[in-house]
Specification:
homodimer; alpha/beta; 434 Repressor (Amino-terminal Domain); Rossmann fold; 3 domains; 6-stranded parallel β-sheet; 13 helices; 17% strand; DNA-binding
DNA sequence: AACGTGGCATGCAACGTGGCAAGTGGTAGA
DNA sequence: TCTACCACTTGCCACGTTGCATGCCACGTT
């Protein structure tokens, strides 16, 4: 097995080049020659050598996805869409995780490229805009989320300001006025958290509800445990809270868990809204009201960006900033 | 950028071969030469060309993970461990999903190999043992789960019979006697489901509880929705059920959801146990009692198998069947 | 009969790297 | 002074593929 073009060519009595033409199907080959070669291909079980094609053609057929954590439901659901969308474009998806570590993030950001992958889909966590701008080679790259790199890089994201405002307005529409936000990340260059906080504040301001910094809870990570801890802090402080907008569903699920542990009823005493529309939220008790980004559209848009950049290499056109639709899904928790 | 050995060699005033020696660090190079070359490497920002190395050396540094769904929490958590374990061995992980489609499964099983990846980690869903045995090239391969391919392929799995029996015995120890099982898959060549059913039956038999086929519910997939539907069928039938062992946590979470919808209290009226120990279970209401497989150990074992096979290619030694430890985690649901 | 054309097939070269074995220059010992 | 040896360096080749340019042949035209 592992026959190469030369062996197939010998067997079919033609040149290597002709076999290559048959395999790629593009060049001009006489029908009977084509058939003879095809038979040899089948008999020997020929499979194109990816390494040689990569070396010759400069394309690996690989796209890297660099994210904080693949085990996080939002990212694993997104990865599922990306794998499918990539397959439709004859790409395969390489998954790398940074574990939220800036050093690893920088290393992967620099390292995965180097002719290994055709493109890079990066969800930055701690990298600063300055880090991001430093794109040493011409590897096409798309950023997920709103990192505000001065519009120099392709971005795909929902409008976090609008979405956060939508969620907050919904909580306001329920008559809640003591609304907290969980998920601020002032210590990170994380445009996403900052923009969700902005949308939250805007909606409160619109409704004439005074901002209360004590109700804006920062978290280190976006795990359930962080949401639970934040909720616990909020409740144990004793200040009135009748609703909470969490910047991710994971945070929201953790927050609901902490509320349940303290006997606080959701949604009666505490309305909870999340962000991401992960599957768990649909089965939580109560089911989670959330902002649903169109994940399939994100995947499609990201790959389209890469494909476009790749088509005209080196394409140094203006960065694209693609905004993806979102929906407010009202369920049981708010 | 994208300098190659030749350019570095020209700059350093040495031969390509010497630069290669410096880069790989293995051969004999005079200290001052090494330093000079190193400077040229740094100045030009040299990065080894993955394609050329792959072509020359036959190793791509890639391992493929072929699973039904990356969005499924069990698999995404496992993938997280695999990415980390792979990185420790200088491998990168390529993720492919079959969506439970036998045709795609077969295609990926055959197709990903072909010199593209150094190894294959496969979690078969619908492929028959006969399909699995047909390993056309020598690409090292590890199976996750118990597919019973006559011991011809490397396997890594927990002992599903023992684990299912452990979970069932726990339900029995609570005094429950009307115990159902959700997750049978008689229509698939799925050794895992079959073995969990076997363990379930064994534990019942040990306790002298008669087997009741009507309490063994089959499912098509392992999603929450399947668990919810199965639970609904079970409850709506009106036959007494005071406990249920689900073959996955996703099924269990769905089942708990369906129970809650019908006002059935867990664990008072219905004890629920799952399998997989996914993160959601730790935050469900009530928290989910489950069998916890050591996922990190699975990841390590799978990669070790691949590495061993790869080290002595073509290693046609006997297949290894590695059994991974599991623990029963007793939490709120049972 | 010589020529041009178009359909098809082929040889050469190169992508960047690393194994192999030979080559270089210098030093120590005979 | 010659040789043997050592430490270091190098040229050549092959991995499998595809772009390019060219070769060959048959057929129809002039």
């Amino acid at each position: 097995m592992a026959a190469n073009l030369r062996q197939v060519a010998d067997r079919a009595g033609v040149s290597v080049r002709t076999v290559s033409n048959v395999v790629s199907g593009f060049a001009l080959v006489a029908p009977d020659t084509r058939e003879r070669v095809q038979r040899a291909l089948d008999e020997l079980g020929y499979r194109p050598n990816a390494a040689a094609r990569h070396l010759r053609g400069g394309r690996s057929g690989l796209v890297a996805l660099v994210i904080p954590e693949i085990a996080s439901p939002y990212f694993s659901e997104l990865a599922a869409h990306l794998v499918r969308a990539a397959e439709a474009r004859s790409w395969m998806l390489l998954v790398q995780q940074t574990d939220g570590d800036p050093e690893r993030e920088r290393r992967l950001f620099d390292g995965v490229r180097g002719q290994t992958v055709d493109g890079l889909i990066l969800s930055p966590w701690a990298l600063s805009p300055a880090d991001l701008r430093r794109n040493p080679d011409a590897t096409p790259m798309v950023l997920l989320g709103e990192q505000d790199a001065d519009g120099l890089l392709d971005h795909v994201a929902v409008d976090s300001v609008a979405a956060a405002a939508d969620a907050t307005r919904h909580l306001l529409s329920l008559g809640r006025r003591s609304i907290a936000a969980i998920g601020a990340q002032p210590h990170l260059h994380n445009g996403t958290a900052a923009r969700r906080l902005l949308g939250f504040r805007q909606a409160l301001a619109e409704a004439g509800v005074p901002a209360d910094p004590a109700r804006e809870i920062a978290v280190d990570r976006l795990h359930r445990a962080d949401g639970a801890a934040a909720m616990a802090r909020l409740l144990d402080r004793g200040a009135p809270v009748d609703a909470v907008f969490c910047f991710s569903d994971q945070l929201a699920l953790g927050a609901m868990h902490a509320a349940a542990e303290r006997g606080v009823r959701v949604p009666e005493q505490l309305a909870v809204a999340g962000f991401d529309d992960i599957e768990d939220g649909r089965y939580a008790g109560p089911t989670l009201t959330t902002i649903s980004p169109d994940k399939q559209a994100i995947a499609e848009a990201a790959l389209t960006c890469l494909a476009d950049r790749l088509a005209r290499t080196p394409y140094t056109g203006p960065a694209r900033r693609i905004t993806i639709d979102h929906t407010l899904l009202v369920r049981g928790s708010a």
